[in-house]
Amino acid sequence: MILLDRVSKIYKRGLRPALDKVSLHIAPREFVIIVGVSGAGKSTLLRLLTREEKPTSGKIVVGGIDYDTLDDRDTPLLRRKIGVVFQDFKLLPNRTVFENVALSLEISGHTNREIKENVPKILELVGLRGKGKSFPRQLSGGEQQRVAIARAMVRQPKILIADEPTGNLDSKNSWEIVRLLTKINKFGTTVVLITHSTEIVNRLNTRVITLDNGKIISDIANGGYRQ
Ligand code: ADP
Fold first, then answer.
1. How confident is the model at residue 225 (pLDDT cuts 50, 70, 90)?
2. Ligand 1 atom closest to residue 40's alpha carbon, by position in its atom list
3. Which of 18, 47, 51, 126 is the most exposed place for a label (fewest CB within 10 A)?
């Protein structure tokens, strides 16, 4: 569950609020698309959810954790609840696919045995069986994004936030990534997809929230559905 209650964010040198009294409820297992033109406040929303930034005012509760009462030292715990993928993949170029995904488990103190068990399973889930020994540069853009999704999902977060995950991909690869996100959602993970793509919005029959000038200007169940 993601809950925002009148959340505002004003950056130090910001002329206007990047987010302006945004209230929002996303239930467990929902698949939500967030759209909005550049500067609408989408990245700010993401950075507030991952606690890279703190709100100027308002309340944020994610998975039962009230951010007001969360100690800064506990932020890594939160990051385990929320997986994030980005437009530019952010993979480590000198590590193999397996190592890129395993690192996420190493950091959170999993044993070698758990790593050897879990990494192949997640690579299978994202459709990269047999690619564990490849390096990112040997993969297509779509495959690299799958690695990033595997890395985000290997710790089994309750929530996956994808920030323009198809921004660097052609239409076929974009659609495959979106299909993977819907599959992850069907397995029980809440998915928040930030996208510019009207094609994706129109083809997915799901909730669409539109941000503009730091405010939610529409929030429509099945907002993308066009017959
Ligand atoms: P989007 O992701 O939808 O493009 P952002 O959240 O990046 O929107 O930006 C929302 C507003 O906040 C914009 O006016 C942007 O210029 C401003 N902004 C974003 N990050 C910062 C920052 N670190 N410092 C000052 N202003 C910022």
1. low
2. 3
3. 47
Torsion angle, alpha carbons of 140, 49, 156, 132, to 10? 20
Of the chain, the percentage scoring pLDDT greater than 90 comes to 86
List the structure tokens of 4: 């925002």
* Residues facing residue 12 across a β-bridge: none
Ligand 1 binding pocket includes 56 (Cβ within 6 Å) = no
User: Does residue 174 line the site of ligand 1, with CB under 6 A?
Assistant: no
The answer to whether the predicted template modeling score (pTM) of the entire model surpasses 0.90 is yes
Of the given ranges (66-80, 87-101, 164-178), which has the lowest mean pLDDT?
66-80
Name which residue sits closest to atom 16 of ligand 1, judged by CA.
39
Distance of alpha carbon 65 from alpha carbon 133, whole angstroms: 38
Task: Give me 97's structure tokens.
Answer: 């696919």
Q: Ligand 1, atom 18: nearest CA belongs to which residue?
A: 18
